[in-house]
Amino acid sequence: MFELLKKKLSGFAEKFRKKVEPAEEKKETLIQEPAEEPARKPVLEEPTPPKKPVVVRKKPKALQEKPEVVEAPKEAEVEEIAEPEEIAEEEAEEIAEVSEEKPRELKAKVSKLGRLKKAIGVEITISESDVKDLLWELELSLLEADVEQTTAEEISRDLRQRLVGKKIRGGQDIDSVLKGEIKSVLAAIMETEGINLEKEIRAKKEKPYRILFLGPNGAGKTTTMAKLTYWLQEKGFKVIWSASDTFRAASIEQLEKHASNLKVRVVKHSYGADPAAVAFDAIKTAQSRGIDVVMIDSAGRQETNRNLMQELQKIVKVTQPDLRLYVGEAFTGQALLQQAQEYDKVAGVDAFVLTKIDCDAKGGTTISLLYKLKKPILFVGVGQEYPDLEKFDPEFVLKQVIG
Ligand SMILES: Nc1nc2c(ncn2[C@@H]2O[C@H](COP(=O)(O)OP(=O)(O)OP(=O)(O)O)[C@@H](O)[C@H]2O)c(=O)[nH]1
Ligand SMILES: [Mg+2]
Question: What top-level class would CATH report for the domain 197-393?
Answer without folding.
Answer: alpha beta
